[in-house]
Amino acid sequence: IDSKLPDVGTTIFTRMSVLAQQYGAVNLGQGFPDFDCDPLLLERMQSALLHGHNQYAPMAGVPALREEISRQIASLYGRTYDAATEITITAGATQAIHTAISILVQPGDEVILFEPAYDSYDPSIRLNGGVPVRVRLHAPDYRPDWEAVRAALSSRTRAIIINTPHNPTARLWTAQDMQTLAELIKDTNVVVISDEVYEHMIFDGARHESVARHPALAARAFVISSFGKAFHVTGWKIAYCCAPLDLMREFQKAHQFIVFCTHAPSQYALADYLPQGAHLQLASFYQRKRDLFLNAVADCGLQWLPSQGSFFVSASFAHLEKQGDWPALAFAEWLTREVGVACIPLSSFYHDGFDEKVVRFCFAKKDETLQEAASRLQRLK
Ligand code: PMP
Ligand code: GLN
Fold it and tell me: Which residue has its alpha carbon closest to ligand 1 atom 8?
């Protein structure tokens, strides 16, 4: 057939996981925990399964879960989304992002995104006939260049996708960034798609700037988060999307035909589990893992970049005598094969493979896994 995505192959996450397995490498590539979730959540899941929650959930999601989400967002960020009409439970954040794009984009419409970008944004835009307009973030700070954003805006701009904490760079947007964005799009119809899947993993006392905190932006935004990240259950693929009524109405029109509804038992389990507040411990949980890993690899020869949030940390290898001029993909493959630690090249997050010789490591791993990876990375010296 005439492919709509002729340039797309298997994702880098899958490829590096396969390579890690093949070479017995410690897999710090694909972002997922190598430990299990809270046993209490599993009990809640078991109970949901045994109590007959095994048929279709309501289209927008189990009401009790939507109510919990609404309460949580109100208490954390001060905005109240109406649980009945402004929240939808989705099959992962990926589906929420895809659905939002699908209801916004008409053929030829432009969507601004920041590169390095999570890999699903670009294909979702193009599958819907849209045109990705890419604004580059640069190592080592990866700060948005607001002049470049201004220049990227046009009469065809339909949406802008933002992501804080940011995958892969582990950078946070500030309140000032949100303010600047709000001013830039004030007199346009641009809709914000805010990918906040790492919202609870914020380090060193910083604050998560959810779009839900910023009324001018929230009024024109889809705010998306994922339970996969918050509760160490990436395989459940349960996430949610919040938006003002006019946007959510359109979102649900598409949602009901893209997936209709999502996995029912896990929604009941999560509705019961959410009030425990386990997500509020996530920042300190992951900050400790970040520090454990960074202390153990501080002198391994890579140049570590700051990790302000998410469960990733990146490093530059540009200064290495032997490997410094290799493409990041070649370096990541070599590190997997020869050093025994898998990572992800940041060049894979740029559509044209732009390469600043930086690779990403995931520290959502058991302490022993991080220690084993660190001791292998000492071989770089
Ligand atoms: N956005 C970002 C920035 C991510 O890192 C991920 C997953 N790693 C997703 C979206 C997708 O989340 P989900 O697994 O809930 O689809
Ligand atoms: N989001 C995860 C990452 O960045 C991977 C998810 C996936 O494999 N699609 O590593």
Answer: 31
